[in-house]
UniProtKB/TrEMBL annotation, chains A, B:
Residues 13-190 form the Ferritin-like domain. InterPro entries: Ferritin-like, Ferritin-like_SF, Ferritin_actino. It comes from Mycolicibacterium fallax. This is Hydroxylase. It comes from the Bacteria. Pfam families: MiaE_2.
Length: 219, 219
């Protein structure tokens, strides 16, 4: 059990919500872009449904920020470069790469939400958990990727490398954000209560990433 | 007051739902494509929210079809060509054209839903009205277009022409669909009860289109 160590007016909370809000918008456009590679209508619809869910999360975060007296669009503009940079560094070349990126990205976001949620005051944590409860739309990915990597050892190696690259790029960008935003560092460190330092936070993300690779048959 | 003239197992109902379902998916991808022309984040977010709403409608239609024992993806494949054709014939060249297309398309869909809804048995009309209640996400378009056409007479003429072309193309494609689908013709004709023929149906669409042009300042 962790205890709440952050007050509801911690300045990192607005920053966190703004970061997540832009993350949702960026994910929306990334998913719809990558859906172009889908081999069939079913894949395009799955991606569209995931993308639509991202805008639902965005709506929750926008409302939460509004209640805190913050304009979402102003607040999130600061996070556009780092999220666009993540996506432009990780443009998939195949539909399978797009699927893996979708799944890993969704899972990383969920991990991140979970890490943070426990440290937040209840009224704020509620928003984060509501968004989190909405993720998991990426389950359709699992069977398609598993089938492909069971059929081809070469695909397994290729997608395992791709998956590691996604994690590496996510960590690079996260470190970049944290270097710029003391409020967020303070929030994350308060969140990883009992550990209290960032290295552990990133190690934990890497462990859950390894679980996800196993789920996809990439371990 | 119109009376219900169609039974719940009218074969046109599955066809109508399938047509509308593909229309929602096509609109999703069209909106996200056209959002690329947005001059700012605010425009991209408005478009993304509209697109997300389309997938909500799609979900309602998919469920309704499932309850009628119909697989949405199989059923709607027949309508892909006509809807893709509409969109490929009406690719906007500017952000204002994209906005007008969004608004007119949303309004035409609403008109179409309304025309049909009254003729349907209550359990089926409920689905249509639920989707209809969800439209109107395109209101953000009005002020932006009105401002542009108030500032420039040339824009007004250009966008008025564009708007007429959109209607013309929609009617062309609708006639094409109806020529191929007797079940849908029968449904539409039952729907326009007291008029009973297609020419009136299209005239009515043209009248409401004129109202929409006036709302946008294009009359």
């Amino acid at each position: 059990m962790r205890s709440t160590t952050v007050s509801a007016d911690h300045p990192g909370i607005n920053e966190l919500f703004a970061l997540l809000a832009y993350g949702e918008v960026a994910a929306f456009y990334r998913l719809t872009d990558e859906a172009r590679m889908a081999p069939d209508l079913s894949g395009r619809i799955n991606m569209a449904q995931m993308a639509a869910a991202e805008m639902g999360h965005y709506g929750l975060l926008r409302e939460a920020l509004q209640q805190r007296g913050v304009d979402v669009q102003e607040a999130m503009a600061a996070y556009a470069p780092v999220l666009e940079s993540y996506h432009s560094q990780t443009i998939p070349r195949t539909w399978l790469e797009a699927l893996v990126k979708t799944y890993i990205g969704d899972a990383l976001a969920a991990d991140f939400y979970l890490e943070i949620a426990d440290a937040l005051p209840e009224e704020v944590a509620g928003v984060v958990r509501e968004v989190l409860a909405e993720t998991g739309n990426s389950q359709f990915v699992v069977s398609e990727v598993r089938a492909a990597v069971t059929a081809s050892q070469q695909q397994r190696h290729r997608l395992a490398l791709w998956s590691r690259r996604l994690l590496g790029e996510a960590i690079t960008q996260a470190q970049y954000v944290l270097a710029e935003r003391d409020e967020l560092v303070d929030l994350v460190v308060s969140g990883t209560d009992g550990l209290g330092h960032l290295a552990e936070f990133f190690e934990r993300l890497q462990r859950t990433h390894a679980d996800r690779m196993a789920e996809l048959g990439l371990a």
